[in-house]
Write a structure and sequence with these properties.
This protein has 377 residues and is of the alpha+beta class. The chain contains five helices and 23 strands. The chain has helices at 2-20, 92-127, 133-165, 214-218, 360-376, and strands spanning 31-32, 35-37, 40-55, 58-62, 67-72, 79-80, 85-89, 168-170, 175-180, 187-188, 193-198, 203-210, 221-226, 229-241, 251-258, 269-287, 292-294, 297-304, 311-318, 320-325, 328-332, 339-341, 353-355. The chain is rod-shaped, with a radius of gyration of 46 Å.
Length: 377
């Protein structure tokens, strides 16, 4: 009876322990990771340059004579047509000079007529010997001198008239006034820039290129955008590149025109983007945080998964690094379309199960449900 009682107690204890023991050990949940897809392309180099919009044809207008500004008829931003009056100088002195030149010309005309009359009269007297040959030659010389003086005074009168006309500054072409550098009452010198006029129909983007970028700049493909519309880039073409660097900045000025002849606001801030193929090697750009090391060489953690499975495992794969661009690394050696881990690479291990982006939340929910069911049992 004692043996039977001990056996029964042992069986009861065993049954109780078996009820408390789980059916199987809990399964570790896949670790969520952040990945990047491998996409190959040629190695390209991109640069950005700050510039502004200017007109291809912008002319500084100046008076061809000096004087005091009497009137200014235009303002910045005003559109003018060819021949419109821009400013006027006080012309009092030039009118006096024109009148004086007229009077001198009148005197020269009278003297020329008198000299010619004397020449003819002496010529008729010289035929019958009343005057000497020397007197006749002197009369011819006086007539020629008087004629030359008359012509010279006529030219002086013409110059005086022109200088009087130059006191009125007119637009040499139609366009927008971009600068006005004088005010009424100001005394300006001959040739001093007064008003600048630009043609708004020929806009260009002007940038300064550093000396060490010059060779690459000539071979690049260009795009530009305005500060007012940074998400709307457009194609531009290089029209002019200065053959000599500026003395102060040691940069080369480049002028680029829109490929589609679109209107651009003059003076607007622009960003020029250059893009060129550096080499024919196909590389993939991945975040630099994806790089790790394997036996002292660069490597990445490649996620292996079947089809559209939300989970997979990681394996260390060596890669070749061809360079860096900001926070990106240019690599090759990974199959195109593969997914590489870009965050937490120091916590990866060969064969570690991971959950791909977008599947981590669902995988965690399934794990919680499985754990709850095991606890209930």
């Amino acid at each position: 009876m004692n043996n039977s009682h001990a056996t029964a107690v042992t069986l009861a204890v065993a049954a109780l322990l078996s009820a408390c023991t789980p059916d199987k050990p809990p399964v570790e949940a896949p670790r969520p990771v952040r990945t990047a897809e491998i996409r190959y392309d040629a190695i390209r180099e991109a640069n950005r340059y700050a510039g502004n919009v200017q007109s291809r044809f912008e002319v500084d207008h100046a008076f061809r004579v000096g004087g005091k500004v009497a009137r200014r008829l235009v303002d910045v931003g005003q559109f003018v047509h060819e021949g419109d009056v821009l400013a006027v100088l006080d012309d009092s002195d030039y009118r006096l000079a024109e009148e004086a030149a007229r009077q001198q010309w009148t005197v020269a005309v009278a003297q020329a007529r008198q000299a010619e009359s004397d020449r003819k009269r002496l010529g008729s007297l010289q035929a019958d010997g009343s005057v000497s040959v020397a007197d006749d030659e002197h009369a011819h010389s006086g007539a020629q001198t008087a004629q030359a003086t008359e012509e010279a005074q006529a030219r002086q009168l013409e110059l005086a008239r022109n200088r009087l006309k130059y006191t009125v500054l007119r637009a040499s072409r139609g366009g927008v006034v971009t600068a006005v550098r004088v005010e009424v009452g100001q005394v300006v010198a001959e040739g001093q820039p007064v008003v600048a006029i630009a043609d708004p129909g020929t806009p260009e983007i002007v940038v300064d290129v550093p000396e060490d970028h010059l060779i690459a700049f000539k071979k690049a493909h260009f795009k530009a955008s305005l500060a007012s519309a940074p998400d709307q880039p457009f194609e531009v073409a290089l029209r002019e590149l200065s053959p000599q660097a500026a003395a102060q900045t040691r940069t080369y000025r480049a002028r680029l025109k829109p490929a589609d002849a679109r209107p651009l606001p003059l003076g607007a801030t622009a960003t020029l983007i250059t893009d060129r193929v550096v080499a024919d090697v196909q590389v993939a750009a991945i975040p630099a945080t994806a790089l790790t090391q394997a036996n002292g060489h660069p490597a990445v953690w490649l996620v292996k998964h079947a089809g559209n499975e939300p989970t997979g495992s990681v394996d260390l794969m060596p890669v070749a690094v061809h360079g860096y661009r900001n926070d990106l690394a240019m690599v090759s050696g990974v199959p195109a379309g593969g997914q590489v881990v870009t965050a937490g690479v120091q916590k990866m291990a060969p064969g570690l199960k991971v959950a791909l982006p977008g599947a981590a939340l669902a995988e965690a929910s399934l794990t919680q449900v499985d754990t709850t069911q095991q606890a209930a049992r």
